[in-house]
Every structure is written in structure tokens, then in C-alpha cells.
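Priority: medium. Attachment 1 of 2:
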């Protein structure tokens, strides 16, 4: 009798689960389906704007954009391209770097900035940088990335993977697969392969 009762209880449980599955299929819904997590909603949306961030009266950066969405709980602001690329000007004691990208993410607590998508940056001295993602640290006003980078300075064009640099691009360290070319009269010529620098932040 004891075994029969256990079997009877198990049979009822199995039958119950089967009924739930049958009802779920009949309703056209997968059983035990989890509802998708709701997408975060920005507390603030700003269009066609120019913002300036400063610390102790000294400019850190300026940003121009079509659309900014501020997520106060996460402490970030996302600036995205609508019709024009996002423009960010980074300031340091040595000068200014002006960048263009498809997206910029601002850490509202640290004031750090991350650029993503077709990043192009030009210093006041005329040096240029191209990559797909670039970070700027507000604390020490340094640029860094782990991705491939192309740097043009005067007639010298350098390529590598991973970089750390001053805001003005006057001092730059490339970390891997580094090559340098010189381009007289707009025609590049390979002149040397630079040694790989393995230490430092990437």
C-alpha cells in the first residue's frame, strides 16, 4: 500500500505538470517563459546641445551632440550620433584635442569619457589619431585604448595595437605590432619597424 500511494501521488504530480504544459502550448506561450528585463529609461534627454565640464574653474572637456541620454542611477550619460558625429574637445595644460565619434559615454562621477565608433582625433599641433574606441581619464588627462590605432604626426604614420598618450598626442606609446611609415609627397614608404613596447596600461 505504501508503494502504491507514492506512485499515485507521483502520478498526480506528473499529470498536473502535463496539464500545465498542455495549457501553455494551447495558449501559444512557451511554458515557464521569463519576461524580458525592461530597458532602462533615461531620466534626462537633451537634443542639439553644447556642454562644458570643468574642475576648480579649469575646463576638462566640451561636448557637442545631437542627442544625450542621462541615466542618473547608473551615473552615466550616453551621447549618440543622429545626423552628425559627436564632437568632444579634451583640455590639458599642454593644449586641446578635438575628437569625432559615433558615440560618447560619460562617467558622471569620475568625468572620464569613452569614445566609440569611427573615432578621429586631432591635436592643436596637427597630430591625428584614428581608432574604433578611445578612453580619456579625467584624473591624469591621458588617452588609452586596447584596439588598433593609426597615428599621424608630421610626415610619420605609425600603426599599432594598444596605446597610451598625452592629451595633445605629443607623447605616445604604442604597445604591439608597431610599424612606422614616412609619407613624403603623399606617398608612404616603409622605413623601419619599431620595437614592441610591452609594459604600461592598455
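Attachment 2 of 2:
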Amino acid at each position: 500500500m505504501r508503494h502504491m500511494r507514492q506512485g499515485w501521488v507521483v502520478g498526480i504530480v506528473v499529470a498536473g505538470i502535463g496539464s500545465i504544459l498542455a495549457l501553455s502550448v494551447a495558449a501559444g506561450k512557451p511554458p515557464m517563459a521569463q519576461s524580458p528585463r525592461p530597458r532602462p529609461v533615461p531620466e534626462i534627454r537633451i537634443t542639439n546641445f553644447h556642454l562644458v565640464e570643468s574642475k576648480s574653474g579649469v575646463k576638462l572637456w566640451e561636448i557637442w551632440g545631437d542627442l544625450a541620454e542621462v541615466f542618473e542611477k547608473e551615473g552615466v550619460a550616453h551621447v549618440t550620433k543622429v545626423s552628425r558625429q559627436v564632437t568632444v574637445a579634451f583640455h590639458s595644460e599642454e593644449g586641446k584635442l578635438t575628437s569625432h565619434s559615433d558615440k560618447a559615454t560619460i562617467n558622471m562621477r569620475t568625468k572620464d569619457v569613452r569614445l566609440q565608433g569611427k573615432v578621429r582625433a586631432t591635436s592643436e599641433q596637427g597630430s591625428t589619431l584614428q581608432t574604433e574606441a578611445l578612453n580619456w581619464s579625467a584624473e591624469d588627462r591621458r588617452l588609452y585604448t586596447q584596439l588598433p590605432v593609426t597615428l599621424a604626426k608630421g610626415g610619420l604614420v605609425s600603426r599599432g595595437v594598444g596605446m597610451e598618450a598625452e592629451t595633445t598626442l605629443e607623447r605616445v606609446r604604442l604597445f604591439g605590432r608597431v610599424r612606422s611609415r614616412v609619407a613624403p609627397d603623399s606617398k608612404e614608404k616603409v622605413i623601419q619597424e619599431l620595437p614592441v613596447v610591452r609594459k604600461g596600461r592598455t
